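Retry 2 of 3 after timeout on previous attempt. Resubmitting structure tokens to design endpoint.
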């Protein structure tokens, strides 16, 4: 994650996922990324630094929150399954990328076989 603002890079990384669709169901202030109609990332578009909410395995979610002050329970989401990451640069880029990949993978794993096949064809 090198170019532009960290938030712009997160948006680019989410949009680059296979089958990802950017949507604005909650208004212009939040970009929601979905695969097969299911959310895997919500990016706040308000004042910098911004934040991204990502789906997460519950045990890993707690571990990440303990490790980074910038990671908190999901804002307006199921706090057991979602984390919100303040994009202040304190979470290493590679770890943030892993969190995006993990969120996407969790959602794809819950899709039907037919939906998963559609993503790869």
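Retry 2 succeeded. Sequence:
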């Amino acid at each position: 994650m090198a170019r532009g603002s960290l938030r712009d890079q997160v948006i680019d990384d989410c949009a680059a996922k296979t089958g990802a669709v950017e949507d604005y169901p909650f208004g212009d202030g939040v970009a929601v990324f979905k695969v097969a109609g299911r959310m895997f990332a919500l990016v706040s578009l308000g004042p910098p630094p911004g934040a991204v909410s990502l789906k997460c395995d519950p045990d890993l979610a707690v571990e990440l929150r303990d490790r980074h002050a910038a990671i908190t329970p999901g804002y307006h989401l199921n706090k057991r399954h979602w984390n919100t990451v303040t994009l202040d640069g304190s979470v290493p880029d590679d770890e943030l990328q892993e969190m995006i990949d993990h969120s996407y993978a969790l959602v794809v794993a819950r899709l039907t076989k037919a939906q998963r096949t559609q993503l790869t064809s």
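Attempt log closed. Helices lie at 6-15, 58-67, 93-109, 113-120.
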